[in-house]
Amino acid sequence: MSLPEILLWQRLQHSDVKFRRQHPVGRYVLDFYCAAARICVEVDGISHDMGNNPSRDADRDAWLNAQGVSVLRICAADVLRDPDGVADGIVRAVAGG
Question: pTM value?
Fold first, then answer.
């Protein structure tokens, strides 16, 4: 796991919402997954903006959506800047409020 993923996991694992980390779905491994809400959280570093990665991410998101899994993409820089705020936002989004 990358540093942003570690920082986020340290916060998500103690939230009121249950998350799994490095959860496999099909041929993909999701950074974080909330089974109750069928939402995955992907922490994207700068490499996700390079080369063919944006189209690969779009294909992955489309496949996950077709499986009934919503994708929430979070910028790694945002996690590094404010891990508590990002974790709180994710928990609110997953909890529906």
Answer: 0.87
